[in-house]
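Priority: medium. Attachment 1 of 2:
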């Protein structure tokens, strides 16, 4: 285990001050605690941990149990010039909660949770430390849903959703987290708390709620959140179609959106991933999963229109059974996790996005460039808009050992990002930047990166909040 990044005397001074304000039991500097908070679920971080490499290790771990403790930690960090990286359940797959300059890892999972459901306004207010799956289960018992269902639902917190601009598997109907947020409170680096909300819409200046969504802890720390909720739909209809090509599938989805259909579920698999999705290695065509929710008559009408459009696109209906099977296991990470847990095994998921007019050429370019870098390159399209779609690439492979696997993963990332930049694509649709994409942030954001730096300098003049992310 390498020594910490900060000078020992500075660490000792911080530990003393923190112990006095938050309690010595909340402050840890032991090797085990620091190692455990030096990786998330980013495959490169996982492989590094397997060979005992911890390049992103804090000097101090602070576990807070009161909001006042967060303010105390920020005050000490600001006074001493020590970086603070917020960490919750660490389900990030791109390295967002990893401390690249040492300092303090601030574990907020111990903050008290609170759930306040307003059935008249259709909102729920929760503390940012609330685990998503527990919240969704509680809402379901009351006849409601968040409409937000990321694969990490049971491994992520509400605050993490805002920090990473998360989206869920059903975003084509409900929207991403930026669409679902009514308001929230955030603590700035100076300890002040800002309340950002709209009731239900506000035209009093810019929508400042968007400022911290996706900021990855670089601008402030989310404390509580108010989200929209939706009554559980009366009907849910699922359908699937075999299609002659990826191009035909993309065209079909685009026509569905242009027609005004609002499916809650859209998943177009290329042939390679369709074989996994259907558990059928003989599959030889792309497959489209669709789902519609709402009052039964509305769901049936939308499903019927989609079926007619699919038939016109030479799609062959194959029933709801495989779609239901996917719905039943949509939180299952085991295939990727099992491969990552083998020596030399590697797996990566990279999600990007582009306009309809550009997405097919991006698909072919990435498939061609990435095929030599993995045993399998699987692609699906799963979050759709009238203007374009996300594209989700899964790469599976085995290298000679874990060190070789790390090198292969690094090559996969650089290849993917370079091709996306060449095509003018969005480098991330919902996993965020983290460490994986931070080196490309300035090129991706262009002139907007100057604005981001200006905001960062204004809100966090000492640069203590999660440095090294978003190209900052």
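Attachment 2 of 2:
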């Amino acid at each position: 285990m390498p020594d910490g990044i900060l000078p020992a005397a500075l660490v000792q001074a911080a530990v003393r001050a923190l112990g006095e304000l938050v309690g010595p039991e909340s402050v840890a500097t032991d090797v085990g605690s620091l190692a455990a908070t030096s990786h998330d679920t980013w495959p490169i971080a996982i492989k590094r941990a397997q060979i005992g490499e911890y390049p992103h290790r804090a000097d101090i771990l602070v576990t807070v149990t009161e909001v006042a403790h967060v303010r105390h930690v920020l005050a000490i960090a600001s006074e001493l010039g020590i970086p603070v990286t917020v960490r919750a359940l660490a389900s990030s797959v791109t390295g967002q909660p990893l401390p690249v300059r040492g300092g303090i890892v601030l574990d907020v999972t111990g903050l008290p949770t609170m759930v306040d459901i307003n059935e008249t306004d259709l909102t729920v207010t929760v503390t940012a430390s609330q685990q998503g799956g527990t919240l969704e289960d509680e809402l379901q018992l009351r006849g409601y849903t968040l409409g937000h269902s990321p694969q990490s639902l049971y491994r992520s917190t509400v605050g993490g959703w805002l920090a990473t601009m998360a989206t869920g598997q059903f975003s084509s109907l409900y929207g991403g987290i930026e669409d679902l947020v009514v308001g929230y409170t955030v603590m700035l680096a100076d300890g002040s708390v800002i309340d950002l909300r709209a009731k239900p819409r506000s035209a009093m200046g810019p929508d400042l709620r968007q400022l911290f969504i996706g900021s990855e802890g670089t601008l402030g720390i989310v404390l509580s959140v108010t989200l929209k909720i939706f009554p559980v739909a009366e009907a849910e209809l699922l359908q699937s179609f075999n299609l002659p090509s990826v191009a035909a599938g993309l065209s079909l989805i685009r026509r569905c959106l242009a027609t005004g259909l609002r499916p809650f579920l859209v998943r177009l698999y290329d042939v390679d991933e369709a074989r996994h999705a259907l558990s059928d290695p003989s599959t030889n065509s792309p497959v489209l999963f669709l789902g519609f929710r709402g009052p039964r008559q509305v769901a049936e009408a939308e499903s019927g229109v989609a079926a007619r459009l699919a038939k016109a696109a030479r799609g062959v209906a194959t029933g709801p059974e495989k779609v239901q099977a996917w719905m039943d296991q949509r939180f299952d990470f085991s295939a990727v996790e099992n491969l990552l847990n083998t020596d030399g095994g590697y797996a990566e998921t990279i999600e990007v996005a582009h306009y309809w007019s550009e997405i097919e050429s991006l698909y072919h370019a990435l498939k061609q460039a990435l095929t030599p870098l993995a045993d399998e390159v699987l692609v699906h399209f799963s979050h759709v808009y009238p203007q374009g779609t996300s594209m989700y690439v899964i790469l599976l492979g085995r290298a000679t050992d874990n060190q070789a696997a790390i090198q292969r993963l690094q090559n996969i990332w650089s290849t993917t990002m370079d091709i996306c930049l060449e095509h003018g694509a969005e480098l991330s649709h919902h996993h965020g930047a983290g460490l994986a994409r931070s080196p490309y942030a300035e090129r991706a954001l262009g002139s907007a990166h100057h604005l981001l730096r200006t905001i960062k300098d204004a809100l966090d003049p000492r640069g203590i909040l999660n440095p090294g992310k978003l190209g900052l």
